[in-house]
Every structure is written in structure tokens, then in C-alpha cells.
Predict the structure.
Amino acid sequence: MHAVYIGGGTPTALAAPDLQRLLKHLTAALPLANDCEITVEGRIHHFNADKMAACLEGGANRFSIGVQTFDTELRQAMGRMAGRESVMAALDRLSGLDRAVVVIDLIYGFPGQTMAMWRRDIAEFLSLSLDGVDLYQLNVFKGSPLDKAVVRGDMPPAADLPGQARMFAEGVDLLSGARYRRLSMSHWGRTTRERNIYNHLMKGPSA
């Protein structure tokens, strides 16, 4: 087995001992390749130094953190509790351990998100010298809390498709200019340390 991905929820909500125990059991029970990519997905909120250490001791060698945006006001509007400074500090601490790949996701097309805000998000990411990033288009699902807020007029509409296309193109240009390698339609890596194995396997012909 060449990749294990723990996520699709928020495993970093678990207590540190539980995270370590989960990872140790997985690495002991599964037939893992020597260079297996073991990813833990999570959010910055509640992901403290103890939990980071527990994941590393348990065998994690890659973290995928759902940042979405660094803009504090926009984060709060989207229900994210940690502000820009907390996010930046936590990511800097995690990458500074230099024991695992650190990638994040950024989302474009949020209600009220301008091109200038999107450019700042990319600039903040680049300033951290993380291993990789995903640029994801916002999807507003009918009946979701975000959809209801827009319908009520509590929030402006999300960006339309042409607007999202312009934001994505700007992100592509900025990452290319910073010499990030494009590994898939929406994912970029800074160095060969970021292999993105799980996503490649998931989208491959045998998936």
C-alpha cells in the first residue's frame, strides 16, 4: 500500500493520545510500502502542538490542512474560528518541525471575496514556503447553510462561473510564477517532497 489518507472528516478533533493510537494501529495492521504516504487531514482550530507531535509519533508524514482563506473576516463569515494570525502561526510551527509534508487548500469564489483578497491568500501561502496547495472552486449546495444565507440576503452571492474562472487563472499564474509544479488540475507542489500519491491513486484507472 502506497498511500493512507485519514480524513474526509476532521481527525484533528480527536485527542492527542487517540490520534497517536489510531495511526499506530493503522501502520501496524496495513501492508504499507516503506515510503508510504500517510496523510492526516485537519483544521487549524484545536490542532495544537501536542496533536501535531502525536501524529508524527504515530507515523504521519503528510498533513493536509483546510485553510480555505487566510482573511479573518471571511473566515469568520464562513464559520472558521481561527483568525489569520493563528492560522499563519500554526502552519509555520507545523512546517518548522520539518518532519512531514504540509499542504493546504484555498477556496476561490466565496461571497464577498474580491480578486485582491484572493491574491492576498496566494501571497500568504507563498510566504510560508509550504510543500503544496490545492485551489478549489467554491460549491454552494442548494439547501446548505451558505445557500440559505445568500437566499435570505444575509450574504452576497458567491462568484459566478466567469468570476471563478478569472480567480483560478490568477492563482495558476501566481503559482507558476513562484515556480510551483502543477501536479494535477487543482494541486501544486513546491519540491519533489510533495508527491500527492493519494490523489493520483484515487483518480487513476484502478480507483
Notes: The beta strands are 3-6, 37-42, 62-68, 101-108, 132-137, 181-182, 187-189. Residues 3-202 form a domain with the Transcription Regulator spoIIAA fold (CATH 3.30.750.200).
